[in-house]
Amino acid sequence: MTSLGFGDEIKLNSCYTRLKESIKTMAESDLTLVNRIYVNYTNDIEPSFITNSTEKWGVQVEKIAFIYPKAAVSYINRWVGTGTYKRIMDILDPGDITKETTMIIINAVHFKGTWESPFDFRFTKLSKFRHIDGRISRVPMMTRIDSLSYTAADGYQFLSMKFASWRATLTIVLPKTPQGLPEFLEKLEEDPSYISSNIKRMSMTPMRIFLPRFKIKSYVDWTGFLQELGITEIFSKTSSGLSAILKNDSGTKQFALNKAKQKVFIQIDEMGVARFTRDPIRQDSQPKIPRFLDVPEFVADRPFYFQISLDFESTRYEIFTGVYYGPEPEIVSKP
């Protein structure tokens, strides 16, 4: 807990309780979240550990026979696929479980936000997206005119748009040039409060926005990263500190975390739920977009940083943060 910035379990529990309450409405609509701790099948697990994991932290503990590695991998992958409606598959690789495995942690997340004010798919058209290396590709560019929270500073544009989920927001930081994102990320590393300080400066502004429809998939094996953060003992069978999850009279002495894996799938489109009756990017189906004089434009046609957050009890929780660099290379063309 010290490595994660928490001095004691009471503080961690208080923080997590507030966060759990804040994402409840999101989980009822736009967010699919599955978590599970798998432990090697044994009768030595303390029942209170299983109960507390579920009731306090929302993570179920399941016993599984790791002595059959292939079957265990297949079983867990099927469970994740079912829990995410097949949006996330194959979270484990064949070699992730061995006969010596005692514990693994799995986390899979799918988010498809529904806007408070949807985009009209009839206005969506293929437009240029400029990559960091100078390449240009074509992306489905959504657009709408609305009054949105906006500010600009240091050559960056900051824009926030509300989701239909209670107090859920997408904030985008758009650099001035396609090559400006790395510099922004360095600035954010130097000053983690840089975004929040600019969000406080935002004001409602009539805007014409252009935002690409996009999907982002993230696949992380946290095992190595956690050890780089200094969280190493939990992976050692001789000094993991996990003996408390075993019964006092347990004959099992060596117990440790072997693997922690996560897959995240984020989708941003016009509605958050596909409701198209025809091809949304057909040129012949597009009405003309009304044009107002002196309305500033926010054109996300280059790499940008994004943050999906929740405001709850005067606290802003960053649920997802990421960057969009553009579509995959195979559909990229030269200018």
From TrEMBL:
Family the UniProt entry places it in: Belongs to the serpin family.
Domain Serpin as annotated: residue spans: 1-327
GO cellular component: extracellular space
InterPro entries: Serpin_CS, Serpin_dom, Serpin_fam, Serpin_sf, Serpin_sf_1, Serpin_sf_2
Cell cycle recorded as keyword: no
Keyword Protease: no
Naturally occurring in which organism (per UniProt): Chrysodeixis includens
Keywords per UniProt: Protease inhibitor, Serine protease inhibitor
Annotated Gene3D superfamilies: Alpha-1-antitrypsin, domain 1, Antithrombin, subunit I, domain 2
GO MF terms, alphabetically ordered: serine-type endopeptidase inhibitor activity
Signal peptide (UniProt feature, chain positions): none
The protein's name: Serpin domain-containing protein
